[in-house]
Structures are given as structure tokens and as C-alpha cells.
Amino acid sequence: MMLARHEDHPLRLFMVTLVVAGLTYGQWLTSFVLNIDGEVPDNFYQTIALGRWFHAVLRFGLLPEPFLPYFTNLTSLFVLSAAACLAALTLSLRGYRAVFFSVLFVTFPNLAYQLEFLNQADTFAVGYGLAILSAYLFLCGISAPRRVSQYGYLVLAVVLLALALGIYQTLVLVPAVLVAGRLLLQTDEELIGVSNLRLAVPFCVYTILAVLLYTAGTAISQGLIGVDGQSYFSGYVEGRSFGQYVIGVGSAFGSSLVGRSAFGFITYILATVAAVFLIAKGWKRAVGERVQKALLVVAVLLLPFAFVLLSGTKLPPRIYVAANLSFAILLTAATSVLWSRKAVFVLLMCLCIFHCNAITRLFVSDKRVRDADIQMASQIATIIRVKYPTIDLASIPVYFHGAHTNLAEEKLPGSDIFGSSFFAWDNGNDVRIKNFNRYYGIADYRPVGPEQIKAVEFILPTLPTWPDANSIALSNGVVVVKLGAEYGWLPFSIR
């Protein structure tokens, strides 16, 4: 059978994985859509503030800004496909099992929520690869016969994981899932309970050292550049009672396990079913072995959603970076002992088709809304020029007030940032809207300050909202475009 012929041929495995990834993400690969946050060509200071210092380093050298449509996309898929093959190697998978795992790895839709951010898609892929390589080196270090080799592997593993965290912090969970998966997929002959238990302590030390090294890198980079640190999770952590916290965590984990945490995640319920099967299958083993296997299964299943424990509520799907890894591991483990190769191939084909459909629908929704955004921005620019032909927009600022949602019906349920309009994000963001106009060459509007906004406050209640042409007015030397009734996000206070 075709799948079996790839045994011991890593290059063939990589090519199969890359081709499937290209087909799955064909819409994204060939049809450029500007993502939210992609309108700014240089995010250096923001990434340093967020602690993503190695992302900034890559942007200065190997992968410079701004992103390049198609090339950035292709680079991301290339690196993720290589990461999938390295993960299969780490898990000691061969033949059709390696193909099954690698293809599920690159097609599960959680990656789409990261690749949507084209301004960091390639560096995220590099970070994912570094995290997997780090786990591989950790396992090599643990099993190395000589102490010098052990230390060399482990030091390199710590450094690589710290670099991965310097790209995207939630990648810290990837080695944990991968190592747990490696122990889960061991054969009975390989299974030695004491060695697995002994692995926990060095793994914790390895992870802690990597986090400390990453933290040091964050402090040094922010100090050298002179920017204050920002916490990504601060917007999701809310003060609540212990009872509310428990309910929130339970609800978040529950929705994740049945595939309802985001659009396209519905197949994760198969991972939950596979986990139940694997636990039940090991019930006749010795008590210690049974408990160990059950803990490994639960760890692989739940670890991708561990940051829910910090927030106490459901998080955006882009946080669940290890969900594809867990999904692929659990289904590989379950099908390896239950199904024939032909049945596995049929299941793989069905899952690929379903995931391709979900991912394509996500990116198509984005394109339709972005086309509407471009049309709306062009209409606004035309009305300003026709209505006020004598004004010089190089000296007169424009203020976008409030928000307007384009094609709200295109927004898929639970699709996070997909299908979001630039004119509605942040409840309306004057700075973002202007950067969007500038990116597409529609107009280069001057910024406004707090005093200029205060000078036009009196006219805002009298204006209709877009798409009424009279929503655009010139007052006190400021062109006002009223998109909505409420104030949107501004980089300063006007109160």
C-alpha cells in the first residue's frame, strides 16, 4: 500500500506532508488577505514589549519585515511540515503511522488561527519547530550513555525551548505534549515504569530552566530597547470568585473536549473518544502500569488547553497551539491497535477533507470581508475628495469615529479573528483604519490628537452613521467620518 512505502524515507514523508499541507491551505496560500495586525509593516517594538524577542531577532535577519504574500505562506507550511516529520521521528513512528500522524498534525484547524496572522506566521512555524527539536534533544539527552553527551543535549534543549518561547510563549506546552506522547506510544517491551516516573523531574527542571532563560532574554531585550513589558494574558484574566473560576475552567475544558471551543475544532471529539478507548484498553494491565498509561493519555488530551487554568475562561483558539499535536498523537495511538492500514487511510482521507473544508471556509470569510473593507475605504476616500475638493489632506487630519461592521453574516461562529472588519475591530480603531488605508494605497490620512477630537465632539450627535454620505463632515479643521455612535479605541484619553 502507498502509505507503507514511506517507511524509513523521511524525505518522502516530508514531501507527502508538505503536499497535503499545500492542498489544505490552498486558499490561504494563493489568495492574499491582509490580517488584523498586519497593517503595520514594522511591529518591532510591540513584539519586544510582548516578550517575543526572538521573533524580533528573526525579523532583523533570516525573515525580515514586512511579510511577503505567498513566500511567507509557503515558508510557514514548509517549516511546519518539517516540524511534523521531526515530531514523528521523536515519537518513533514509521511507515503509515508516521504519514497518518504528520498529515493530521498539519491539517488540524488550530494552526489556521495562527497562520491567519501573516505578520508572524513564518516565525511561529520556526518557533513550533524549535519547540519540537528541543523535546527531541531532551529525550536524546535522557537516553545518552555518557554524562557529557547528556549535558550537551540538555543544555541545547533548554536554549532552543527558550528561543521558541521568545517567538510565542504558549509553545511551552509543545514539549510536554510530545514527551507525554512518546511515553504513551512506547511498546510494552519499552515500557519501564520507573524510568517514566524518573523522567518527570528532569523534564520539570528542563522546562523551568528554559522559562528562566526566556525571562532573562525578555528583561534584557526590553531594557536595551527601552520599552515597557505588556502581558498578553492580562486581557483574559478577570477577578472572579472561586466558584465562578471553577465553573469557567470546567466549561472551557468541556467545550474543548467535545470540539466546540472554535470553528473547525469539532473533530477534536475524536481525540476524546480515542483517549477513553486507550484508558479502557489498558484497564487489564497491572495497577501501576494502568494508572501511568491513564495519566499519560489525560495529559496529552488536556495539556493543549492548560492556559485555561490561568484565565479561568475559554481562550481564543490561537492559544491552543498544541491541539493539533495532541489530536494526531491520540488518534495515531488508538488506530494503531484497532484498525487496519486501509481503514486508517480512509479515516485520514475523511479528516483531511473535513479539515480542508473548515480551513477554506475560514479564509474565504476573511477575504469576503476584506474585499468589502477595501470597497468601503475607497468610497469614503472618494466622498471626501468630491465633497471637499479644495482641502489638503496632507495638512488636515481625518478622524474615524466608532465602528461599522462589514458583512457580519460572513462571520463564522467561534471563528475568532476570521471574518472581522478593520472598521469594527477594537470597537472602531482610528489608528488601525488609517494604517489599513495606507497599506492598500487608498489614502494616507493624518493622525488626530485629543484636542482635535474635543473640537469636533459637538457635531458627532448631529451626524448620521455610515453608509450615509452625510456621515462625513468637515468641522473645525478636522474631517469627521462617523462610522458608529460610540467612541472606539484611541491611543490617548479624551476625558
From TrEMBL:
Keyword list, A-Z: Membrane, Transferase, Transmembrane, Transmembrane helix
State whether keyword Lipid biosynthesis applies.
no
| Keyword Glycoprotein among record annotations | no
Q: What are the TM regions of this chain, as residue ranges?
A: 12-34, 67-89, 96-113, 125-144, 151-179, 199-221, 265-283, 295-313, 319-339, 344-364
What would be an example GO MF term here? transferase activity
Question: Coiled-coil stretches, from where to where?
Answer: none
* Name under which the protein is recorded: Glucosyl transferase II
